[in-house]
Amino acid sequence: MNLARVGAVITKETRELLRDPITVWLCFLMPLVMLFLFGYAVTLDVENIRLGVLDQDRTPASRALAMRFTASHYFERVRDFPQAHAITESLQRGELTLVLVIPHGTQRRLARGETAPVQLLVDGSYAATSLLAAGYAEAIVRGFASAPAAAVEPAVRIWYNPSLRSVNYIVPGLFGVILMAFPPMLTALAIVREKESGTIQQIYASPLTPREFMLGKLLPYAGVAFGEMLMVVGLGYAWFRVPFAGNPVELFAVAGLYVLITVGIGLLVSALAKTQVAAMLIALTIALMPSFLFSGFLFPVFSMPLMMQMYARAFPTSYFIDFARGVVLKGVGVEVLWFNVVWLAAYTAAVFLLAAWLLKKRVA
Amino acid sequence: MGVRVLTGLLRKEFAQFFRDRIMMFVVLWLYTVEIVMCPLALTFDVRHSPLAVVDHDRTPASRALLRAYTATEAFDFVAALARDADAEAWLDRGDAGLVLIVPPGFQRALVRGEPARYQALIDGSNSNVAANVKAYVHGINARYLRGLAGGPPRPAAGLEPVTRVWYNPPLSSNMFMALSMIALAGMMVGTALPAASLVREKEQGTIEQLLVTPIRAWQLFLAKTLPPLCTCLLAIFPGVLLMAWLFDVPMRGSFGFFLLESAVFLLSAIALGVFIGVYVQTLQQALLLSFFGLFPILFLSGTVTPIESMPPFLQTLSLLSPLRYYMDILLGVFLKGAGWRELWPETLALAALAVGLYAGALAAFRRRYR
User: Fold this and answer.
1) Which of A23, A284, A326 has its CB closest to that of B285?
2) Does the distance separating the beta carbons of B123 and A160 come in below 8 Å?
3) Given this model, what pLDDT does residue A213 score?
4) Which member of B94, B282, B314 has the closest CB to residue A40?
């Protein structure tokens, strides 16, 4: 290992990167865009559910019930139906999520102390929203005329994130996703580009050893990745006010380990792909998609079927995200989450051994 | 004359396109494997969430309460803890998603008719899951109460909601997920491939050769458009078959109409790819842009989160996301049996996006190479 030669590769690679301002911009702009979109847009809590009302009763009671819906900030009354037949078309168009039908005689039944049925028609196509909408609507209808006292009452406490702000869980998870999005792709493209343009032959002919070449290619992108990470942590803390309960040094140390894995995956991809497009698509399928969808970043791992859980656990991101959330939200560290760190370390070793072996085979 | 030029160009494009085996493989992967995996795995439903219990009461009443929780699919009992302090450790490690703490005297309070309280501690680190767990806790508690009252609930005075869910009565998210994966695959492949193939001509300098031939700009764009369009339209078939077979996604509308709408959507995605391809200089830039342009488009489409709950400026931005319109079309055609009469606004919006992007790309191309 000759440090001067590694330095030369680093200089070349950094220069090449800096000469391409669009790429540098993208590297730092895209995590920002992701942070803001995820920070503002990811909430399943629905407000302003579009409500249609068909009031066949037309009495003070039926009007009061419809008022209850609009008084809760969950519903927004966007349409009143004079007749039932317009409802189908309106739901088909997707104008409404829920239609409340109050039949004739509702007030009369209530006055007599009978049970009065009220119909709720729900558009089930957006299942997550529909479930919550139906739940809210049923609660409003049930609570309208009766007030039974519950004898058993759960006192619900939500830990780590009492206000249920989604930014709090998104930001620590985003470290894991962003680091899986950029470094593998940039590293893979950096090497495959040399293959495509043929300059890799000059590298082979030079006195550079594979290890020096790898290291020189990896370090600049690892630096970029670390910069991105610092930016996301800083903005999450300063702009979105995500509480930082744990020790930042521990987070950055483990993040360093994780960055090594991500650039290592880039190396693996570069060994597989011959063209840049193929490299990107492979990086997409083995790095970004699993880390975005199967890491517990948005969707919890424990509710997946067992096979899918094993698939999810085969990628390193879920371990890192668990660790990051533990440090940021719960204020715990290596003493509790050592298992995740051990896994990540094992991954690093495995990825680099495999990449080194593949690269050596190529050169020889 | 123009026709001969065009067919020659098309033959070159198709040959170049189908030569890349890895690419074909990835396209198929997106349209089949992902469509199967994602609906199975990705859900905010609470299923088999680990439940730990601190039971200080140890009475039939407290055990019945715990049974009410473990009888559901939502929670799996993992541990009976001795002290309240243990709850913290289990939540910290993430080994428990919910911890119930039943205080001493729970049964006594119940028997006396006093309010009986117990604690439910929820791991809130994933707020969407926590919100659902909270809803489950209240629901299970209500069921437990009804059980206490004994027998079927008495008919009480008051309003009784009768809920009918249309189009997707089990309210499972499978169908929605499967349909959104079809849309997402089209978006990814549709944008990346034409962008890459245009920029490759620039990087290798073959664009200069194309310019000196009688090929016109629109013919070049058309030649870059057709191969990905045909590939995606073909790849939709296995995707739809898998969806119908595994997740019982119904086809209530017309299949021909669905293909037509898909073509319009793919055209808008490909137009975006062509636009990127004309603007950037290197393949790396093209790939990064088309790759990461996906995120805003995906997010503003309402696929991951409902559009209604976004802040107003994001709702306005979402009008620019082709995925948003295509999702409405897919849900309409497959689940609701909607057709042109209901979906013309979405179709027109997609067409307008496509035309706008092609026009922008054409203008930029002319400016640069004339």
Assistant:
1) A23
2) yes
3) 83
4) B314
For tokens 């390193």, the residue is A316
pLDDT value, residue A150 = 44
ipTM of the complex: 0.72
CB contact under 8 A, A44 and B305: yes
**A49-145 under CATH 2.30.40.10, yes or no:** no
Stretch among A8-12, A249-253, B248-252, B305-309 having the lowest mean pLDDT: B305-309
| Block residue for tokens 């206000």 | A163
When pLDDT is averaged across residues A50-69 and rounded to a whole number, the result is 90
Which amino acid makes up residue A227?
G
The domain locations on chain B are 2-41+173-369, 49-149
The pLDDT of residue B100 is above 80 = yes
Which residues in chain A have Cβ-Cβ distances shorter than 8 Å to B121?
A: 157-159
Question: Cβ distance B273 to B322 under 8 Å?
Answer: no
Question: Nearest residue on chain A to B138, judged by CA atoms?
Answer: A154
The DSSP call for residue A140 is: H
Confidence of residue A46 (pLDDT cuts 50, 70, 90): low
Residue A282 with chain B: CB contacts under 8 Å: 22, 26
Contact B120, A154 (CB under 8 A): yes
pTM (two decimals): 0.77
Q: Out of A44, A65, A125, whose CB is closest to B336? A: A125
Helices marked H in chain B: 2-19, 21-31, 33-41, 60-70, 84-93, 106-112, 127-149, 174-204, 206-212, 217-247, 255-279, 283-299, 312-317, 322-330, 340-369
**Which residue ranges make up each domain of chain A?**
3-42+165-363, 49-145
What's the CATH code, domain B49-149?
3.40.1710.10
Taking an 8 Å cut-off on Cβ atoms, the answer to whether B283 and A277 are in contact is: yes
